[in-house]
Amino acid sequence: MFKDNSSCDHVTHQKEITFDELAKGKTDIIFLNGRHDKFKPKIKDDKDAHYILKKCEDGNYIFGNYIGRFAFEGQEYVINSRFGKELEAKLLKTIDSAFFSSGGSVAGASGDIPMDYVLYASFISRLKLAKLSGFPSVYKKIPFRDYALHGSLDVKNFIKKDQPFMGKISSRKSSRVPDEVVARVLLKAYDILVRKNPKFALYDKEIRNFLLANANGEMKSVKDINVALNSKSVMNELYKDYKIALQIARVIILQDSRYANENAVKNLNFGYLLYAPNLFELYVKGLIEEALKILREKHNLDFMLLYQWPNDDERYRVDYLLKDKKDRTIVIDAKYRYFCERCGYCNETDMSNLVQIGKYIAAYKAKMGILVYARNCSCHKVLSENKEPIYLINVLDCPSKKDFNESIEAFKLGLANVIKKNFEEKK
Fold it and tell me: In this predicted model, which residue has the larger pLDDT, 262 or 216?
C-alpha cells in the first residue's frame, strides 16, 4: 500500500497521478463532497496541473488538493492531507457533525477519524434520504399458474338471459416488485460498515429492517454490484439517491478484506476522494466564528458572518463576508496552500490570490481584506498597507514551533486582534 508521502516499493509504481487520469471513465472513483464540475482538470503547459500525487526529485511524493483512498492499476493509494494528520482529522469532522462531533460520535477516544468512516457516514446519510422516496421497483413476470382475472361477470344472469358479455376480462402478466438486487447490495455494504463500527447503526435503526424487507436474500457475488448499478429501477430521477448510495456501496464492498483478494476485484479501479479546499473553507468558517465570539465578549465588536456571499451585481462570491452594525465590511478568503515568500513557480499563484482579494475589497466596498492560508513561514503578515489593508494569517505555525492546538488558538487570537486593531482605528 502506498501511504503517508513515502515512496512506493516497486519501480512501476514510481509515477505521478493526475485528476485527468482518474477521470477518463476507466475508473470508478467517487467524490464525496462538492459538485463534479469542481473536479475538472486544470491544464497548464500541456499538463494536468490538478494533480493527486506528484513525484519529487528525491523520489518521495507530495499530495495535491485531495485526500482519499483508491485502488488504481493494481496499487492501493492512501492520500492524506499534505498539512498533517491533525488538520486532516479536523477537515473530516466538517463533513457531518452528527457523526463525528455528537455525544455518540463514531470517532475514536482521541478524536481520530479513520478516513473510511467518512465514506460510511456518506453512505448512511444518502440511504436516509433515499428511504423517503420508497424503494425502487422492477416489473416481474407472473407465472401462468398465478394469472388472475380482473373484472366482474354476473354468471347467473349471463346464462339465464343468454346475454353477450360486453366487458373485458384481462389477466396481469407482470407486476411491480422491489428490486431485490439493489437491496442486497446496499444491505451487504451496510453490514460491513456496522461490523467495522457498531455505532453507525445508531443513526437510523430502521435502515437494516428496511433493506431486509426488500432484499429477500443475500448478495451472491460482486457481480451483483454492476447488475444493481445498471438496473433500470435506479435510473429514475426519483431514485437518484439510491444510485449514489450504490456507488458508495461498491467502494465499501470492494475495499472489504473478504472481497479484496477475489480475482474479479484485483484489477478493478475504485475508491473515493475528497476535495480538501472545500473542507478547509468549512473548517476556517468555524474558526472565524470563534474569533468573532472573542471580539464580542472582550472588545464589544459585533460582526455578522456571511458565507459564500455574492456582491451587489453578483459578479463575485467571497468565501466569508463580515459585516457590523454600521455596515462596515471585511472580506476573507481561505486558501488550502502554503504561502511562498521566495521566488518560484508557486509565487505566481500567491500573487493571483493577492490580486483577487483586492478585487473583493473593491467589489464589496470593504474596509480590509484577509487571506487565510493553511501554512506560512511567519505567523501574520501585512501584504498591503493601503487605505484598505490586506493581511495574511496562517492556520498552522511553520516551522512548527507550537503544537496543533496552540496554532489554532494563535490563529483565532491573531484574527481577532487584526480586526480589533483596524476597526478601533477607524472609529
Answer: 216
> Confidence class of residue 339 from pLDDT cuts 50, 70 and 90?
confident
Query: What are the DSSP calls for 287-298, one per residue?
Result: HHHHHHHHHHHH
Per-residue buried b or exposed e for 362-381, using 16+ beta carbons within 10 Å of the residue's own CB: ebbebbbbbbbbbbbeebbb
Q: Where are the beta strands (DSSP E) in 73-207?
A: 75-79, 137-141, 149-150, 170-171, 174-178
Checking 100-108 for CB contacts under 8 A at 24+ apart, the result is 104/199, 104/202, 105/199, 106/197, 106/199, 106/200
pLDDT of residue 11 exceeding 50, the answer is: no
Question: How would you classify residue 5: left for phi > 0, otherwise alpha for psi between -120 and 50, otherwise beta?
Answer: left
Enumerate domains of the chain plus CATH numbers: 137-177 (no CATH), 277-425 (3.90.1570.30)
Predicted structure pTM score = 0.78
> Distances in Å between the alpha carbon of 337 and those of 16, 349, 358, 371?
20, 10, 19, 11
DSSP type of residue 403: -
| 150, 172 Cβ separation under 8 angstroms | yes
Greatest mean pLDDT among 30-39, 61-70, 77-86, 346-355 lies in 77-86
Q: CA angle 63-370-92, nearest 5°?
A: 40
